[in-house]
Amino acid sequence: MGGAWPEVVILGGGFGGLAAARVLERARVPYLLLDARNHHLFQPLLYQVATGFLEGPAVAYPLRALLRRGRFLLGRVERVDLEGKRLLLEGGDALPYRFLVVATGSLPSDLGVPGVREHALFLKTLGQALRVRYRLLEALEKAARRGRPLDLLVVGGGPTGVELAGALAEFLRYTLPRDFPEVPAGTVTLLEAGPRLLSAFRPALGRYAEGALAQLGVRVRLGAQVAEVGEGWVRLSGGERLKGDLVLWAVGVRGNPLPGLPADARGRVPTDPCLRLVGYPEVYVVGDLNGLGFPQLAPVALQQGRWAARNLLRALREQDPLPFRYRDRGQLAVIGRNRAVAELWGLGVAGLPAWLLWAFVHLRELVGFRNRLLVFLDWAYTYLFREPGVRILPD
Length: 395
Ligand SMILES: Cc1cc2nc3c(=O)[nH]c(=O)nc-3n(C[C@H](O)[C@H](O)[C@H](O)COP(=O)(O)OP(=O)(O)OC[C@H]3O[C@@H](n4cnc5c(N)ncnc54)[C@H](O)[C@@H]3O)c2cc1C
Prior knowledge:
The chain has 395 residues and is an alpha/beta fold. Helix content is 32%, strand content 24%. Residues 11-17, 34-37, 43-44, 46-47, 76-77, 103-105, 123-124, 159-160, 256, 258, 287-289, 296-299, 301 line the site of flavin-adenine dinucleotide (FAD).
């Protein structure tokens, strides 16, 4: 590759990679940020893009615009050559590094269930969120032609599944009668294999979520394990077949390791407590990809990104690295337009106060003032006028 590139390379401009970049910016250390896409994506609000409550650009921010001292390179890394200290890029280029922070995140996991890859919809990238939205609008137009209701299936009762099911129920409740008066009221069914929703939260909050979703009209089915997905249906492990115009897969993720990196069964890369790849102290692994066993959440990625960059700065000064300490500030999940559940400092909170907290945290964490403003305005508009945003199908 032409030109001299910085010898500190951050691979991935998501939560972890960007947090590392910001530490290096402040320390005035030159670095290269490499990503297969040119934007940072705020995944926690993707479900709102999928359901038309937010526009795509509001949750994405161009990476180049975020860098001051760093350089950006658009490219997909195909392999890490640990011995040669090089990244091998799609198209044949090789990029040398002296220090590397790997933050390539995670990929949706199909858990080995047949038919998921072919027939279910995922929610991990901006493209996938827009695809859900278009498929939803197409399915509604089809339902309108035939005058029959729309049945939507959401698989996975974790935060993403709960948020998606709540937003879809509101979409059907508020958009359907206005734009599609000829379509009879549809159903949203949330399928969870375990005995309760939001298993990472305390049981009372899972029960609250179940009740709140039921009020929005969502049918919650617990102990419903999906064994196969086909075009327009899912089969449960007991043999029951459920019809679904769309099947949305929100079951979980696995690490996104690159060829050349060691990975465990969940696709996560083992590191020492200082976030360094075992045997390769010049390589740090952070976020969803890190195999230390922390939850795959944005705050973990942010804190690990910062921590790895600080350890990298220590290495540049020939100081010993420090073991990572996670400051758990709790977790949040939203249900519809004004309710949420929150678990903070050992306390469980539900309802409107949790929703206000959720809204505040998400606005604060969004990257870029423009995006905060866009999200705020979109929310204010849809909440006041009960009307989701763009409902245009592409040509
Ligand atoms: C729908 C959804 C909702 C979520 N909601 C929440 C929530 O409410 N709260 C919460 O805390 N967490 C939530 N999360 C999880 C959170 O988004 C992740 O934990 C976080 O994004 C992990 O950060 P990361 O830096 O490890 O990876 P990411 O943020 O995913 O970034 C990975 C980056 O690496 C790049 N990349 C990947 N492979 C390559 C390659 N081969 N070459 C070059 N670049 C590459 C990608 O383009 C991407 O920019 C949600 C996730 C999803 C999918």
